[in-house]
Amino acid sequence: MTFSCAETRARWEDYAAEALQASERQAIREHLAECGPCRNDAASADPVLLFSQVAPDRVSDEDVEQVLAGVRAGIAFKQTERRFAQRPARGWASVAVIAALLLLLSGQRTSRAPVNPSAGSATATVSSSAEIEVPAVPAASPVPEANPNTSSSGNATVYDWSSDRSQPRVVWIVDRSLDI
Amino acid sequence: MELVYSEVSHRREAVELSDLELAREARAGDLVAFETLVTRKTPAVMSVARRIVGDREDARDVAQMVFLRVWEQLARYDEKYSFNTWLYRIATNLAIDFLRSTKSREKAHGATLHLVRAREEATGAETVRAAEEEKLTRLFERASRRLTGKQKAAFVLREMEDRDTKEIAEILRCGESTVRNHLFNARRLLRREIERIDPGFFRRPKEKL
Question: What interface predicted TM-score (ipTM) does this complex get?
Answer without folding.
Answer: 0.78
